[in-house]
Amino acid sequence: MVMSSTRNVSQMTKNSLALILAGGQGSRLFELTQGRAKPALHFGGKFRVIDFPLSNCINSGIRKIGVITQYKAYSLIRHLSRGWSHLNRDLDEYVELLPASQQCSSSWYQGTADALYQNIEFIRSQCPQYVVVLGGDHIYKMDYGSMLAQHVESGAELTVSCIEVPLKEAAGSFGVVGANNQGRILCFKEKPDYPCMLRDTTGHTLASMGNYVFNTDFLLEQLEKDAANADSSHDLGKDIIPALIKTAKVFAYRYRDENSNGVPYWRDVGTLDSFWQANMDLVALSPKLNIYDDGWPIWTYQKQSPPAKFVFNDDGRRGNAVNSMISGGCIVSGASIIDSLLFTDVRVNSYSDISESVVLPRVEIGRNVSIKRAIIDSDCKIPPGMQIGFDPRYDQQRGFRVTENGVVLVTQSMLNRLKKLNIDSPCQHSLIRQSA
């Protein structure tokens, strides 16, 4: 169709405002988000989760971006100010921070719709033709221009970006969409226990990605109606979208790989298991998510660190890494790293073995340490001789968090509690293990 031409799509993206909802607490990540918002999580060796929707916007040609923050936003705001202040405001390009400021009420954001409503004057002041609302806590690469093109071609007032998800994975976790052959949405259910199955893909359902395109006037009208409704929970998925299905032109954009027409990579890193798995996906021999794509770079801020260094080449004391990603500033000193990610400025000392683990920035791992299937939070100092990830009962007894899939989360506060109990020497570790 004519609307899909490069010229017309570039005009659509130029006339669009993206609003990224980045205020999520991420409660299912437990201690990992105790001091940071979910979109501020470190990911993939050098990135933050928020970098993915932001990079998608830039690569799609959307250069007017607002980031709506709320929960423990300091590290997120610091990252955005360091890494995303390079856009040219003289060309009307920006990443604007929109912290909760109680502009339209005396309350903090009550839901996703309320977060948009409390920034309604900002939306009006930018005069966009379309508003692209995005979740700030998913890992994926997507050209929003294609979704905008379909939105205009279909005559939609609202377009919901959707992806095929296995029924078991979607149950109780995602908003689920039912659409006809033309893509018009006939039903929208928020996190149902029994999602409806797709006719053309057995065992799968069509799940909302939390990304939407609105005609601006239509969005403003719906936000004002919702704000005036005392019975609403002021959430897009729970309140506004289900109510619009019967009265408005609401269409699904079925996100598919443009080359294979298959299901592209998209991950919600809302649990410890999913966060660990999404990071592990990157160290696979043929990763499903290609972050080495020069045509679709993932932009970020990174500390100016020296290259990673591997030292010692003696039998039994050889610094090496296999099937792993090692970031700048890391020193692997006579240790072995397998199927793991080491973020910036990690130090691993001699005779230690790390496998299938995610080690966040500035961690120091002592000698003779063994770690398997673990997430080690930023700034942890792992004492010599410690073993993590080999005995779930032992890990739990020491205060580490163990997931249903056996992934162990270790934070410095957990290690501090161990130190107070004087359980920080190799011999005492053995005594604790025997009693477990």
Brief summary:
The protein is an alpha/beta fold and 436 residues long. The chain is built from 13 helices and 31 strands. The chain folds into two domains: 281 residues, Spore Coat Polysaccharide Biosynthesis Protein SpsA, Chain A, CATH 3.90.550.10; 127 residues, UDP N-Acetylglucosamine Acyltransferase, domain 1.
Description:
It is a single chain. The protein folds into two domains: 2-282, Spore Coat Polysaccharide Biosynthesis Protein SpsA, Chain A, CATH 3.90.550.10; 309-435, UDP N-Acetylglucosamine Acyltransferase, domain 1, CATH 2.160.10. The protein has 436 residues and is of the alpha/beta class. The relative contact order is 0.11. The chain is globular. Strands 1, 4, 5, 6, 8, 9, 10, 11 and 12 form a nine-stranded mixed β-sheet that branches. It has a six-stranded mixed β-sheet with strand order 18-21-24-27-31-30. A five-stranded parallel β-sheet has the order 14-19-22-25-28, with no helix packed on it.
Number of helices: 13
Spans of at least 5 consecutive residues whose pLDDT stays below 50 are 430-436
CATH fold field value of the largest domain: Spore Coat Polysaccharide Biosynthesis Protein SpsA, Chain A
> Which range best describes the helical content: under 10%, 10-25%, 25-40%, 40-55%, 55-70% or over 70%?
25-40%
Q: How would you sum up the major sheet?
A: 9 strands, mixed
Structural class: alpha/beta
Radius of gyration: 23 Å
Overall pLDDT metric: 92
Q: How many discrete domains? A: 2
In the CATH hierarchy, what is the superfamily of the largest domain?
Spore Coat Polysaccharide Biosynthesis Protein SpsA, Chain A
Question: Class of the largest domain in CATH?
Answer: Alpha Beta
First and last CA, distance = 67 Å
How many strand elements? 31
Q: How does the overall form come out from the CA principal axes?
A: globular
